[in-house]
Amino acid sequence: MPRACSSTASPPAESERLNTSKGEWLSFLQSFPYSETKMKKKGRRSKRAIRRFPRLLEGTEAAALEKLLWNKPEFQARVQPDKYTIDFVFSLRYSQPLQRYRSLRHIIFGPAFKSWEGSFRSAYSHLRYGDKALDQSMANNLHRLFNQGVRLWLQAAWSLKGIRKTSNEKPSRRTELATFDKEAPIKSNQPDPRIAIWTANKQRQWLTAVRGIRQRLKSRAQCMQPAELRREIERMVPYKKFSAGLEKIAPEKHPTPQAFFTATWLSAKSMVDAMLAAELERKGFDPKRISVKTYLKEGKKLLTALSALPQPHRW
Questions:
Q1: Is residue 110 part of a domain?
Q2: Smaller CB count within 10 Å for the chain: N or C?
Q3: How many whole angstroms from its chain centre is CA 88?
Q4: Which of 100, 126, 152 is the endpoint of a domain?
Q5: Is residue 50 part of a domain?
Q6: 183: Cβ–Cβ under 8 A, 6 or more apart, which residues?
């Protein structure tokens, strides 16, 4: 799947933000000329001058470093077939004036460069851009980039020589672009396509199982012991998911498995939808914000589109 070069990992702990080992810092500090610091006199005795690490950067020096290093990032898009990834890479090349300041170059690109990586990761994880977190804002803009990239690729493909622009047998380029714009809009509160496909597949799988359970056990479910009935249900569908769905849809609290077989108002489809809603909640999704019906509609549409994909030729 597409990824940006910036990390979206969770914020590092305070002690890990610099992410630099003691040895790296020692190597870093030893690369500078030593400065001497004298200790205050204690009574009649005075400590010898000791050699300490270089002083810390002052705010004005850090500001100068920031200004000299920053410039418009270079953008690259790399498709890596061996890793099945698309990399969006933004690179900062240090500017020409910075080449004249060896110390500033060494601070960033010297042995302690890992500390900068930790600082930038930390900043990326907690900064905000307007009313959104920076990582979410960047993800939204990269989504627009990716969307338009796919559209331009589709347009170029339908512009190849030999492809009819209008045909009674095949859709035209204009039609295909219009279809893409309709089917791939970028707007808020859209169902996650991967969850949508999972929901559609699970509904088909569980619906067959739940209908089979009701048909096979309806006549004797009331006579079965709870443990025995649970084992029979478990053979067809995960019992915890079955129980969670039943608790979600049944009017009484803590319903027994027998309630599914006696409730004439409860269809197998309603039961499966309740199981899906309970599972989505367990995974951290809110079915009240995006309903199970919406996930199913999107998932079935995606499965239909993907099933029509031609298989690649073997070279």
A1: yes
A2: C
A3: 14
A4: 126
A5: no
A6: 301
3-state helix/strand/coil string of the chain: CEEECCCCCCCCCHHHCCCCCHHHHHHHHHCCCCEEECCCCECCECCCCEEECCCCCCHHHHHHHHHHHCCCCEEEEEEECCCCEEEEEEECCCCHHHHHCHHHHHHHHCCCHHHHHHHHHHHHHHCEECCEEHHHHHHHHHHHHHHHHHHHHHHHHCCCCCCCCCCCCCCCHHHHHHHHHHHCCCCCCCCCHHHHHHHHHHHHHHHHHHHHHHHHHCCCHHHCCHHHHHHHHHCCCCHHHHHHHHHHHCCCCCCCCHHHHHCCCCCHHHHHHHHHHHHHHHCCCCCCCCCHHHHHHHHHHHHHHHHCCCCCCCC
Question: What's the pTM?
Answer: 0.68
283 and 207 housed in the same domain:
yes
Same domain, residue pair 216 and 271: yes
> Which residues span the domain enclosing 73?
1-9+58-126
Low-confidence ranges of the chain (pLDDT < 70): 1-55, 95-99, 163-171, 313-315
Question: Does 32 fall in a domain?
Answer: no
pLDDT digits (tens, 9 = 90+) for 59-106: 888 888 888 788 889 999 999 999 999 999 999 887 666 667 777 778
Instruction: Identify whether 166 is part of a domain.
Output: yes
What total number of domains does the chain contain? Answer: 3
pLDDT tens digit sequence for 228-247? 888 989 999 999 999 999 99
Statement to judge: residues 122 and 147 lie in one domain: no
